[in-house]
Write a structure and sequence with these properties.
Layout (H helix, E strand, L loop, with lengths): L11 E2 L15 H13 L5 E3 L11 H15 L5 E4 L5 H13 L4 E5 L6 H11 L4 E6 L10 H10 L3 E6 L4 H12 L5 E4 L6 H6 L4 E2 L6 H12 L3 H21 L1 H10 L17 H14 L5
Parallel strand pairs: 1-8, 2-3, 3-4, 4-5, 5-6, 6-7, 7-8
């Protein structure tokens, strides 16, 4: 098995792009690439696709492969690209990792699936995508395995291709610190997840960045920049302004993300395939209020 070279540069704010759908229900590639440009123009340090925030579970293999290829060609190395390669079948996950590798992705993010032999799962993916660095996404049940920090560290130690962890189980901050301690500096870094709702605690405990949804990526990039220059008060001011909106996004997920992007002039259509609650008139009014709260820290 080829062990990927250590790349400590993967860090900062790496938003997960949503999948825009047109009025015909098909992925809108033009809108999709426009969102990638928005992320870069907002100061994102990299881009992730596809993930849960991309409605990945609703995409056909052909749609997924086509969007990954289009994104890689469009980015052309401007920022690091992390491809989502999660699949309960490790051979299929390896195929998704190879698709990303061909498109220029620097790493493949793979969710630890519930009920699986995690070492065997990740070792199979690493063998099937030689030379590709992996990121273990540890998400809570039912979507993920919800591994303990010690279990995460054990899988990372057993599979050298795993260079990063995206930690999303609660309490996120504690788990970031425990994974870093248990892996003894072998990892290139641990990223925060969970929609950046706990990003201040994660950064304080050693996270190398965050992987939120896209709708306030400009604020998240500004928060990261403030943190890096030692302006923790400035970072917290941005966090406090965006957190109420992110809490609403936790409930409505991609529908809230797309509605905010529409209001910011970045999407024409907010159609979604994913299951989940639909925004009603009261929720729309609440988004208006929460956007007003966040407005001072948005571009």
């Amino acid at each position: 098995m080829t062990t990927p070279s250590l790349d400590p540069s993967l860090g900062g704010v790496l938003p997960v792009l949503p999948t825009p759908f047109g009025v015909d229900g098909a992925p809108d590639v033009v809108a999709f690439l426009r969102l990638a440009d928005f992320a870069i123009e907002s100061g994102a340090d990299g881009i992730v696709f596809p993930g849960m925030a991309s409605e990945v579970e609703t995409l056909t293999p052909e749609e997924r492969a086509s969007l990954v290829a289009a994104l890689g060609a469009h980015l052309a190395g401007r920022v690091p690209f992390v491809v989502g390669a999660s699949d309960r079948d490790p051979d299929q996950a390896a195929a998704r990792a190879r698709e990303g590798q061909a498109a220029g992705a620097v790493a493949a993010m793979v969710m630890a699936p519930p009920g699986a032999d995690q070492v065997r799962h990740f070792a199979t993916i690493a063998a099937g995508a030689p030379g590709m660095a992996l990121m273990l996404q540890n998400a809570p049940a039912p979507n993920g395995a919800g591994l303990s920090p010690d279990a995460v560290a054990g899988v990372c130690d057993a599979v050298p291709a795993i260079r990063w962890v995206k930690e999303e189980t609660l309490p996120c901050g504690q788990h970031v610190a425990r994974i870093l301690a248990a892996t003894g500096g072998r990892l290139a870094g641990v990223m925060g997840g969970a929609g950046a709702r706990f990003v201040m605690d994660e950064l304080a405990r050693g996270a190398c960045g965050t992987m939120p949804a896209l709708e306030v990526v400009d604020a998240h990039a500004a928060l990261w920049a403030a943190w890096r220059r030692g302006d923790k008060a400035g970072a917290r001011r941005i966090y406090d302004a965006t957190l109420p909106l992110l809490c609403l996004q936790m409930v409505f997920r991609v529908r809230a993300t797309k509605e905010v992007l529409r209001r910011r002039g970045l999407l024409l259509h907010t159609g979604a395939r994913a299951a989940g609650p639909v925004l009603d008139e009261g929720d729309q009014a609440e988004i208006s209020a929460l956007l007003a709260t966040a407005a001072p820290v948005l571009r």
